[in-house]
Every structure is written in structure tokens, then in C-alpha cells.
Design a protein that fits this description.
Elements: H1 10-15, E1 24-25, H2 26-35, H3 40-47, E2 53-54, H4 57-67
Antiparallel strand pairs: 1-2
């Protein structure tokens, strides 16, 4: 896993996931964020997520929270 030094809140990340369907893979999440114009710090955080299926925005928020 990459070391993440930039402060990005789960709420900021969630804003770029509008329109995503769950369950979603890490790649689905990154693609949706890119499509919604996510900036580099958000994409870096998403790139650091574990490879697994996420079932809700809360799953993603919890995963991001564990990185800090």
C-alpha cells in the first residue's frame, strides 16, 4: 500500500463518487472519481485502497479512515 500524506476527508472523496453503483471494485471507484473530475489527492487516496469489492460509501470511508 502507498503511504498517503495528503489530508483528504472521506466526505471529499464521496463527493466524487456520485452516480456509482454498488457493489464496486477499486477500479470502478477510481473510474467513477475520474469521470467526476476528482483531483490528484483524491485519486491517490483511491489508488491506495485495498483490492476488494466495496458495498457502500461507508465501506470506502472506513477504508480511507484506516489509512490515516
Amino acid at each position: 500500500m502507498k503511504v498517503v500524506n495528503v489530508k483528504v476527508s472521506p466526505a471529499q472523496v464521496e463527493a466524487y463518487l456520485k452516480g456509482i453503483s454498488f457493489p464496486a471494485s477499486k477500479q470502478d471507484i477510481i473510474r467513477q472519481a475520474e469521470d467526476n473530475g476528482a483531483d490528484k489527492p483524491v485519486l491517490n487516496i483511491l489508488g491506495s485502497l485495498r483490492e476488494k469489492e466495496y458495498h457502500s460509501p461507508i465501506d470506502i470511508s472506513k477504508a480511507i479512515g484506516k489509512m490515516k
